[in-house]
What does this fold into?
Amino acid sequence: MPDEEAVNARARFEKQVLDEAPRLGREDSFEFGCHPGVACFGDCCGDVNIVLTPYDVLRLKNRLGLGSEEFLEKYTILPFSKDQRLPAPLIRMGEDGKKSCPFLNLEAGGCTVYEDRPWACRMYPLGYAKPSDAEVGEEAFWFLMEEEGCLGFKENTRLKVADWIRDQGIEEYDEWGEKYRRLAVDEYLAKDKDLSPQQMQMFFMGTYELDTFRRFVLKSSFLDRFEVSEDEIERLKEDDEALMEFAFRFLRFSLFGKQTMTIKDNAVPERTQ
Ligand code: SF4
Ligand code: SF4
It folds into this structure.
């Protein structure tokens, strides 16, 4: 699917969900079962758009022992359209007839990155919608996404939404999803201010290209310009999650003008700008 078409299809899908999908709460239940015994096992891991969050990339690149840039280059595509305001990489599906996910290996039992699979793969068949500021007052909700050919809905296993979220390890992904969402819905962007190409590049580095961001912090004049404690510097060297928290803080400062960083007294203000 051409890049712009993929982005537009996603926007249409999101609108349809908000308008029409039956809404589920945490205590509601649904019938579903997925295991290697179902005849369709693995069919849904091909020819599908799986958007990766920053935390998905962090987990997957560490799982595979790759740097973030190497992971993004090898395993993702970055669609872009004039209506898209922030970057959203997708898993690069294979070029075989089924356009299979590169992490699928049926002989090896299915998903080879199962413990670190992306949020979207954990959630299926549930979708999650959090109405944006335009729909203030509406609660977040879950909904069922019944993909054509998915036999899991015939398994007669009743599951509660809350149990599914716990059992699929979705909570920690949701925590990071919420941190990212707060960054992505900053009032700066809500005022319809688009990021310039340079700002977009900075945003991408601070969210997805974490290893580049680490070099930017530790190997440039960054630490001459900003107050960062020795303890924090040590954490940023080793701890990707601490680095991502720090990156989100820096993006708020550098792109949205928030006072989330402290400039050193002797730093040259123009250069910092
Ligand atoms: S299509 Fe449905 S039942 Fe089949 S493997 Fe995928 S999620 Fe499981
Ligand atoms: S990451 Fe795993 S679960 Fe997700 S599409 Fe790929 S093989 Fe399937």
